[in-house]
Give the backbone structure.
Amino acid sequence: MESVILVDENDKELGVGEKLETHQRALLHRAFSILVFNSKGEMMLQQRAKSKYHCGGLWSNACCGHPRPGESLADAAKRRLREEMGFECALQEIKTFIYKVKFDNGLTEHEFLHVFKGLFDGFPKINPAEADDWKWIGMQELKNDIEQNPDKYSYWFKLILRKLF
């Protein structure tokens, strides 16, 4: 059973919740998303594994996750990037915000989201339980594709891009 950290709207810890139940009950919890760029300014995208409990098959940022109880955000972000994409790079927190979205399967993401940014010029070794594919994409090409095919991308990724760019 995986646990997430329940928080208030100021990111103050309120307790711990079981991950699936937290998403069923739409409880606000701490999460992070990682944007990875290469030295050419391209962004790494991950295609979420079709087996994921929500948003499977959608394109999204390089990595997402939840810190475990007692784990720092920085440590959690490094851990998940390694687990999902098979590499490490220096990460810097660049933004926080709260969002809430209900999915067709009845689950709701209600997250206090911490957005991190990193630079990496190598090739990931994706974990097939987490990602089906990956690619580098230029920012203008990404913007154009999201305008033409918004349903191919995760809700939070489009929200991050709107808030940052």
